[in-house]
Each structure stands twice: as C-alpha cells, then as structure tokens.
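Dear U.,

Please find below the material for section 3 of the report. The protein was modelled together with magnesium ion; I have listed the sequence and SMILES used, followed by the predicted complex structure.
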Amino acid sequence: MSNRATGGAGKPPLYKIVMLGDSGVGKTSLVARLTNPDRPLNHDISATMGIEFDTQMLDTPHGKVKAQIWDTAGQERFARVLLPTYFRKAKGVILVYDITNAKSFESLAERWMAQLQDHASTDDLAKLLVGNKSDLEASREVSQEKAQQFCQEYGMEMLETSAKSGENVLTSFERLIGIVHDRALTSQKSRGGIAGLGGPSGGTSSATPATVNLDETKGANTDSAACGC
Ligand SMILES: Nc1nc2c(ncn2[C@@H]2O[C@H](COP(=O)(O)OP(=O)(O)O)[C@@H](O)[C@H]2O)c(=O)[nH]1
Ligand SMILES: [Mg+2]
C-alpha cells in the first residue's frame, strides 16, 4: 500500500501499550522475545520491583510505528499501587494468560479486566488476548474455544503464542499496534488531520529497557516516557 499515513518525513508515531496478566504467564518473556529475538528464553529473569518499558519499531499496514511496551517488573501485586501510572496514556493492552494454567485465564475476567475498567479509559484502549506457552500443548488446560468465547464477550481478537519458540510473538504485537494505529488515524481524520499523535519520541529505535521504580512513579511518563499522545 502506498499510503504513507504517518505523515511523510515525521518521526513514526509512538504508542504506549501495556502487558497485563498473572505473574508467571510469560509477559516479560514475550517482550524479551520481541525485542531480542535471538536470545534464548531466560529461565531466571531477575525480578526488580516496579515497572519497566521497552521501545520497539513495528510495521503496520499504514507504516512504521514505535511501540513503547510497559511491563510489570517483578511481583504483580506491587502493580496495584502503580496502576494509574501504568495505564496513563496507554493505547493498547495485551492480556496474557498461560494455556497450561487455568487459573491464569480465570484471573483475566476476575481481576485484570476489572482493573482495566477502573484505571483505563477503555473506549480508547485496543485489546488483544494472548494465550502463551503454546509449545506446552501436552499440558494445556485452557481450550481455544473457551478463549474465543471470552474474546467475543469483550470484543477482542486472540492469538496463541510461545515466547520459547517465538511462535506468533511478533504477529501479536503487530496485530495490536495495527489496531491502535488504525484507530489513531481514524480519529486524526475525523479531527481534520491535525492531531499531534506520537510526537518526538523518547528512547532510541533499538530496544532500550528503562525501569521506573516505585519511588519515581509520581514523575513517571514525563521524561523518557514522553508519549505526547
Ligand atoms: N515453555 C514455555 N515457557 C515459558 C514461555 N514463556 C515464558 N515461559 C517461562 O515461564 C516463566 C515465567 O515467565 P515470565 O516471562 O517471567 O512471566 P511474567 O511473570 O508474566 O513476566 C519463566 O520460567 C519463563 O521461562 C513459553 O512460551 N513457553
Ligand atoms: Mg515479568
């Protein structure tokens, strides 16, 4: 498609997306697989407290965009006090469960969707359901049918991924960011095409992990996390 809808010579728009789901489902591994595709799965990812984000360029049908991917670093129970910061200006969310862990799937409806509704302007937020650990088919506890039902209920798409093999990892992030970008372009058009999407982005085009610690979250999002959206 020749439509360069991102606005010619300008920098690609930056969109914040957040990872959500129980501890252990593979959120950090999925982000690591996306940003460092050649590195083998790290079975001992050190858990710092707080929030981390990585930035990654991604392709969409309407040009390149930069995704700023936020992930809870460490135990998800700490995320509760950080939720407002976590969701602030987010345009998309990846809801992750582990296909070998029924409890992690139930948590989506019982916990994570409720938190989304409490803390995020949900009209604005594109959602994607991801069932991770598809390489562990023999231990599957959550059927695809069950996950599809959930998707229909909440009006979102789903994919099964493996952070271990890499299956569908890039596709998942591209799918979500594609929806986010489409929505932004649509609202840009309806406002006369002058919306300041993205703007100058923080970080570099390579993956630059950054950590926001508990103490720093009051001012988070103001410097390197400049979303401008
Ligand atoms: N077999 C398999 N293991 C995975 C996969 N994704 C993550 N893991 C493992 O699951 C554990 C938790 O992963 P982690 O990314 O820390 O989960 P998080 O707490 O949601 O960030 C780690 O031991 C990972 O190596 C996957 O797709 N397949
Ligand atoms: Mg993690």
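For the text of the report, you could mention the following: The first helix runs from residue 27 to 35.

Regards,
Y.
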